[in-house]
């Protein structure tokens, strides 16, 4: 499975979402302004949507049930 290119893309997408989430939480803890924090969380939602779509595509293409 580690040699499957789609799996690698899915893993990168999930790690990207986690990274954005941690960056956003760190920004809240540091007291970053509301507009910037809001933009980071909007970016997380978009990245999370793409990651979920990629996961669904992976499961569908691999014939998972």
Q: What does this protein structure show overall?
A:
There is one protein chain. The protein is mainly alpha-helical. 83% of the residues lie in helices and 0% in strands. The protein contains two helices and no strands. The chain has helices at 5-30, 34-61. Helix 1 packs antiparallel against helix 2 (34-61). It is elongated, with a radius of gyration of 15 Å. The two termini are 17 Å apart. The mean pLDDT is 90.
* Shape category: elongated
What percent strand?
under 5%
Secondary structural class: mainly alpha
The main sheet comes to: none
End-to-end span in angstroms?
17 Å
Helix content: over 70%
Helical segment count: 2
Strand/helix succession: HH
Low-pLDDT parts are none
Question: How many strands?
Answer: 0
The overall pLDDT average reads: 90
Q: What gyration radius follows from the Cα positions, in whole Å?
A: 15 Å
